Amino acid sequence: MIQLQLLQKIGVLAISVLLGYAYYFFMSEEKKQFKWKNGNLLVSQLMNFIICLWISKVLIHVRTFFHDPLAVLAYPSDAKAFYMANGLMLMYILWLSGRKKWQTMSFMPVFVPAFFGCFFYI
């Protein structure tokens, strides 16, 4: 029962991100190729956040990770892991910006609708 509720929440969150991206895709006046590029960048950054979340869970529970690695990764994360993952993402984005491989302003038009889509749908 609890797992079904969790899956429903995750499904609603995923649908809200997709609806936010669809809003950007259909309402933006940019070229189609640029829209797809930004969509790929959004998915890439979401996957990077999940990887950062896993890394932060491992860093927080180092002792448990060495005894039972699946126990650390299988259970849901807490607020500490979430905030540490946000910090890791910020450091990664700053590192990319320093190497001139990240243009923040080109990512914002796709990130903002997807981000607000999550808030309005939940």
Summarize the structure in short.
The protein has 122 residues and is mainly α. It is built from 6 helices and no strands.
Rg from alpha-carbon coordinates? 17 Å
Q: Could you tell me how far the N terminus lies from the C terminus, measured between alpha carbons in angstroms?
A: 20 Å
Encode the helix/strand succession as letters.
HHHHHH
Largest sheet descriptor: none
Strand content bin: under 5%
Q: Tell me roughly what share of residues is in helical segments.
A: over 70%
Write down how many β-strands occur, each being a DSSP E stretch of 2 or more residues: 0
Structure in words:
Helix content is 86%, strand content 0%. It is mostly helical and 122 residues long. α1 (2-27) crosses α6 (104-121), α2 (32-60) packs across α5 (79-98) and α2 crosses α6 (104-121). The protein has helices at 2-27, 32-60, 62-67, 69-74, 79-98, 104-121. The protein contains 6 helices and no strands. The chain has one domain. Keywords: Membrane, Transmembrane, Transmembrane helix. The chain crosses the membrane at residues 6-27, 39-60, 80-98.
Ordered list of secondary-structure elements with their pairings:
Elements: H1 2-27, H2 32-60, H3 62-67, H4 69-74, H5 79-98, H6 104-121
Transmembrane segments: 6-27, 39-60, 80-98
Keywords: Membrane, Transmembrane, Transmembrane helix
Looking at this protein, list some descriptive labels.
122 residues; mainly alpha; 86% helix; flat
